[in-house]
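Standup notes
- DV: blocked on the single-chain target, sequence here:
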Amino acid sequence: MIEIQNGLPHPRVDEAVLFPFDRESIPFTSGLRLHMVSGKARGPEALVVQPGPEGSHDDMRVRFYGSVIPLDDELRMWYLGSGRRDGFRSHRICYAVSRDGIHWEKPDLGLVDYHGSTKNNMVDLRGGSPDVLAMPVLHDPDDPDPERRFKLAFECRGYENKSLAVAFSPDGLRWTESPRNPVGPMLELSGIVRFNGCYYVNGHGGFHFGTARDLVTCASYDFEHWTEATALGFQRDRLPLLDMAGVATGGNSGEQVHLGAGLWDRGNVIVGVYDLWHGHPSGDRKLVAMDLGLVISHNAMHYHEPIPDFRLVPAAEEQGGDGALFPQEGMPPIIGGPALTHGQGMCNWGDETFLYYSVWTTGGVRLARWPRDRLGCFRAFEPEELGRRPPARWDDAARHCITCPVRAGDAPARVYANVDGLGEHAAITVEVLDERFRPLPGWSGEACVPVREPGLRQPVVWKDRDSVSGIDGPFRLRVSFDGLRRHDGRLYALYVG
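- DV (later): unblocked, structure below
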């Protein structure tokens, strides 16, 4: 017998999160519509990290291109700063911390000398060299070597063709480069993750025939020996490199994927944020505009959009940035922006989901916010919403969805729902089915207690039990939208753990 192992892996997690926009986790739907949700609270008040005082190493410009990691009781940020003494193209890795994700402090680390003073927040990589261009950070607490608990993938001008380089640190502040640097292919990167025992770094680059900017990924099992070949994981439609008249427009035209995707590992699904590159037909790089989009993956290599070209953070609504590529004195104004850029900066903190990002050139680290995990939802739709008379059977059809199989093991599994819009005339019920879609006594039909209260984590219970246990094999969950105003209900996530 030959077994071809080319399907999805089956990760084991303490708690699974099943998002409506993850069609592998919730593959079956009836009478439901998926709504994605753009980030809120953008604008000047969302500028959370700004350039430092005159004479400092980041007094000219702050760019993200780094990471935000929740650790203990604070958020830690790695970003890029440029000082006027060094010039517009200088980029040094800087560090900031926050208790609430909104107010950030730049601690004096005392690690790197900057014009005669070590009172700054620069981390020690390459002696504080100002040639770093991007640097996602991974916290890897399970590494048996305490000197490698933090891992850094970076690109810099010191290595030809922006080839992948890596470094290690015990604390995220003092970094030791791999003696093998550069260790991988040319990659303008933003995303890093450890998945099923393997490390993956993605960006745009690699060596693929006929491609411009696409999301590609290379892999390593020790973080130092990386594949030269890259997996082509996500492409967008774009204009050809030659226009209809046969005139070369260059590699900047059309719809592309800028810098791959910054990753948020949720255990059973990886959520990615990428730049939707909108290139002008002329190929003029100065006319590029970029929104932020969302992709997901189940193997850290191949990605897809729940809704193609959905603007997770729309550039058109951004305030305080014109998207200029090089807004230096004497440079012409840029009319193509604004252009937003990402790093690896999405996380949950308290009752909110945060996403940190920048405007391409005017800089500063900015914050988009959602209620926790409310990036997209299912809601019931009614026949009249289609604008035409649908088949009569649709009037009476149940509005529901069914999850993928879930195996809980020996311990009882609790189920929670992230829901909104519920009340006296709108509710959801959650039934437990076996793998073959057959209702299980005690968890289905009359046993279900309707959920009528909105909340970020509402417990799901049945008449005589509050957990799922004693089931031999995998089970599924069927969520039904009920009530006279069932279309008011919103399901943002199910949690099983």
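- Follow-up: The longest strand covers residues 254-265.
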